[in-house]
Amino acid sequence: MRLEQFPEQIAQAQEELLVSEQAFRDWNLHYQALINRIDYEVAFDPELKNEQQRKAVKGEKLQQPEFLAALDTLHHLQEKRDRAAIQLELLRNQFKVALLLEQQSSL
């Protein structure tokens, strides 16, 4: 890659990271809403008489397919965000190396 191509590539990588971070934050809000709903249901269930029963029912609800799918999606988005951050850092480092090599060759 030529030096003049790096700024555009870095900007694209920054945009990808921004999109990934936003998707992760949005899905994390959804995930937290699911947890809050479960907490509410357990807290106000009149059939649950003590804290052990509440913990057991909450544990069961956290194993429901809807919650597990949300957790899986959250993990996937976190990995995507992390890969975008790694790619951005790689491009920045490659640009620095290319600049150093250019400076050395002009000496």
Automatic annotation (TrEMBL):
Domain of life: Bacteria
Protein name: Uncharacterized protein
